Amino acid sequence: MPGKKLYIYSTLTNSQKYTKWSKPAEAGALPAVVHEVVVHGGANLSTGTKSAPYFHTPRGVMTPIDESDLAILKENEEFQNHVKRGFISVRDDIVDPEVAVAAAMKQQDRSAPFTPNSPEMQKPETEDQTELKVVSNKAKSA
Q: Which of 94, 105, 74, 79 is closest to 7 using CA atoms?
C-alpha cells in the first residue's frame, strides 16, 4: 500500500533521476540499482513549437511522489544539494508551481536558455555615452 502523497516542486530545466544503489556482497562485484526516483524538469524551457500558436515557458514543475520515495531521496547527496541550493522543495499540498512555489525558489539553473529578460541579454544603462579614446603606454620614439 503506497504511503502519503507528497509533491516535489522543481525549478530545474532538466529532469533528474536519483538512484539508490546496493552495496556489492563480494569484492569486485558491481552495485545494483535498488530504487530510482525521477523528478521532472522543464522549468524555464519553452514548450511551444513552430506550429503552436503560443509558447509557454513554465517557471516550475511538480512531481508527485510517496513517502517511501522521499525516504530514498533524503539519503541521496545530489538531491540534498539541489534542495540546499534552492532548486527543489518538497510539500504535502498541491499548489500552482508557476505562482506559489517558483517565486520562492531559485529561478534558473545554468542549463536554462537565455531569454530577452535574462540578465545576460540586458544592455547596461549608462548615462555617459562618450566615445572611448585609445591610449598607449608605448614611449614615443625620438
A: 94
**DSSP-derived secondary structure letter, 140:** P
- For residue 39, CA distances in Å to 13, 19, 57, 59, 83 come to 11, 11, 18, 15, 12
Give the chain's length: 142
What are the residues whose beta carbons fall under 8 Å from the beta carbon of 44, sequence distance 6 or more?
A: 11, 13, 57, 58, 59, 107, 108, 109, 112, 113, 115
User: pTM above the 0.85 mark?
Assistant: no
Whole-angstrom distance, CA of residue 22 vs CA of residue 68: 16
Whole-number Å distance between alpha carbons of 13 and 11: 6
pLDDT tens for 23-72 read: 988 888 899 999 999 999 888 777 766 666 566 677 788 999 999 999 99
Name the residue ranges covered by the structural domains of the chain. Answer: 5-19+32-113
